[in-house]
Amino acid sequence: MERNKNGEFNWVDLSARDFEGQSKFYETLLGWKPTDVPLGEGMVYRMFKADGHTVAGMAQLSAELMQQGQPSAWNTYVAADDIDATVAKAVELGATVFMPPADVPGDAGRIAAIKDPTGAYIFFWKPSGYDDSMEYMLPGTLSWNDLGTRDPQRAIDFYSKLLGWDVQPMTEGPMPYWVVNVNGKGEGGIMPMPGMVPAEVPAYWLPYFGSADLSASVAKAVELGANVLSAPMEVPDMVAFAVLADPAGATFALMQPLRKA
Question: Which domains are seen in the chain, by residue range?
Answer without folding.
Answer: 9-127 (3.10.180.10), 142-257 (3.10.180.10)
